[in-house]
Write a structure and sequence with these properties.
There is one protein chain. Helix content is about 75%, strand content about 0%. It is mainly alpha-helical and about 130 residues long. The chain has one domain: Globins (Globin-like, Orthogonal Bundle), CATH 1.10.490. Helix 1 (about 5-20) crosses helix 6 and helix 4 packs across helix 6 (about 110-130). The chain starts with a helix and ends with a helix.
Length: about 130
């Protein structure tokens, strides 16, 4: 990731937290595209939506400090491994996240933002898989 990528992710991260419907939409899109993933999640998604919203913002805002990102993502990866998350699941979530960011942020989510978020997500996924 470039410093510009980090700046773009940090700049748009609070917008995820501000749009409470964004993460709900992410899961709708994910389950629409990959219904086989639905059984991995609780019937009531309210707690999951809150956790994802909080964690994605925290990770995004931590991007300037790679050590903090590594620590958070590694711990998160260890927990997700216990839930049955596999490396093949990460691209599905990334693609849903990027599409929802574009859908919900509109003009505020440029091609450069999409690339920055993709790079950030791929970095997080790599660390999580090692965790």
């Amino acid at each position: 990731m470039t410093p510009e990528d980090v700046a773009r992710v940090v700049e748009t991260a609070p917008l995820v937290h501000e749009d409470t419907a964004m993460v709900t939409r992410l899961y709708q899109l994910l389950f629409q595209r990959h219904p086989e993933l639905r059984p991995m999640f609780p019937a009531d998604m309210s707690v999951q939506v809150h956790r994802f919203t909080t964690e994605i913002e925290a990770l995004a805002l931590a991007m300037p400090d790679l050590r903090e990102v590594e620590a958070r993502a590694s711990a998160l990866g260890a927990r997700h491994g216990q839930y049955g998350v596999r490396p093949t699941h990460f691209p599905a979530i990334r693609d849903a996240l990027l599409d929802v960011l574009a859908e919900r942020l509109g003009d505020r989510f440029t091609a450069e933002h999409r690339l920055a978020w993709s790079r950030a997500y791929n970095l997080l996924a790599e660390i999580m898989m090692d965790g």
